[in-house]
Specification:
This protein is of the alpha/beta class. The protein folds into 3 domains: 101 residues, Helix Hairpins (Orthogonal Bundle), CATH 1.10.287.70; 118 residues, 3-Layer(aba) Sandwich (Rossmann fold); 83 residues, Alpha-Beta Plaits, CATH 3.30.70. The chain contains 12 helices and 10 strands.
């Protein structure tokens, strides 16, 4: 679109220059005028401001008529281009806005990211890499520009307002990431979200221990303190660099060779009632390293006779293809041979 517009502008400039030069040379030859008098007559005639004086002779009059007609055509073309550009901008912008709204309305089981600064963008990067649908909520122009540049679905608004959260699909969302740089704003967002969806999983950012305590009181399920986490990571990198590198591979969505995932055991899946030992016999390749039972207890060394029950969550590690094979075993309504 921009390339076409540039070509049209360039073509118009060349056409105007050709008309002016041609008119100037014509008047110089017909009326024997100096170049500046001929150029002045040409500009006055072609720009439709009127004739400086009635040209003498049939040739000069015909040339004047031709310049007037060309001037009408050029200015008519320019006016049409301006109107077309304005119309395209208005219609195209409205179409894009409507399309974005419809895509957000079609989201299900997605993540809402409130606050699109450095932390929010990093969270969105991980969601994008893992294929988890998400929508960004922010009102800063810099954040919105970044969202547009990355083709993110976004809402221009404040996450602390109920209307904004509803537009972002909070009633259909699976979770909320609250990542604003302002602790007070984060608290209001958590309160608004939990008031509407008490069951919604909310992960919030805090800049201090005091803010962490208040966000927990507001209802945040999990709280991340970037400064504390960064300090721990730096210390681990210094003291246990290989451990830090291994954990980074496990936790990063960018690792194509190894990943760690959690898998919910739904009541409808055929794996309910099976033991970990039986799952191991099915040879998915992935390794179950922990099981969180429905009551909330975590077994980090689950024995082979651990029975899979509805609501359990297993934590497994392995290459992505092996993880996908394991996930298929826990897909709803998929019976397994016992």
């Amino acid at each position: 679109m921009q390339q076409t517009t540039r070509h049209r502008i360039l073509a118009t400039i060349i056409l105007v220059a050709t008309v002016f030069v041609g008119g100037m040379l014509g008047f110089m030859a017909i009326l024997d005028e100096s170049w500046h008098d001929a150029l002045y007559r040409t500009v006055v005639t072609a720009s439709l401001t009127g004739l400086d004086s009635t040209p003498h002779g049939l040739g000069a009059q015909l040339l004047s008529i031709g310049l007037v007609l060309l001037g009408v055509s050029i200015f008519g073309y320019l006016a049409a281009q301006v109107i077309d550009s304005i119309a395209r901008g208005l219609v195209g912008g409205a179409w894009r806005e409507n399309r974005r709204r419809k895509m957000i309305e079609g989201l299900r089981d997605h993540i809402i990211v409130c606050g699109y600064g450095r932390v929010g963008r990093r969270a969105a990067d991980e969601l994008r890499l893992t294929g988890v649908p998400y929508v960004v909520v922010d009102f800063g122009e810099g954040a919105l520009e970044y969202a547009r540049a990355n083709s993110d679905l976004y809402i221009d608004g404040n996450g602390a307002e109920d209307e904004t959260l509803v537009t972002a699909g909070i009633d259909r969302a699976r979770g909320l990431i609250v990542a604003s740089d302002d602790d007070g704003e984060n608290m209001y967002i958590v309160l608004s979200a939990k008031a509407r969806r008490p069951d919604l999983t909310v992960v919030a950012r805090a800049s201090s221990e005091d803010a962490e305590r208040k966000l927990r009181l507001a209802g945040a399920d999990r709280i991340v303190t970037p400064y504390t986490s960064a300090g721990r990571a730096m210390a681990t990198l210094m003291i246990k660099p290989q451990v830090a590198a291994f954990m980074n591979v496990l936790s990063s969505a960018r690792s194509p060779e190894f990943s760690i995932e959690e898998i919910l055991v739904p009541a409808e899946c055929g794996a309910v009632g099976l033991t970990l030992g039986r799952l191991g016999e099915l040879d998915t390749g992935a390794t179950v390293v922990a099981v969180r039972k429905g009551g909330g207890t975590f077994d980090t060394r689950p024995p082979a006779d651990t029975v899979m029950e509805p609501g359990d969550v297993i934590v497994a590690v392995g290459p992505p293809d092996q993880i996908r094979t394991l996930e298929q075993l826990f897909a709803p309504r998929r019976p397994l041979a016992r």
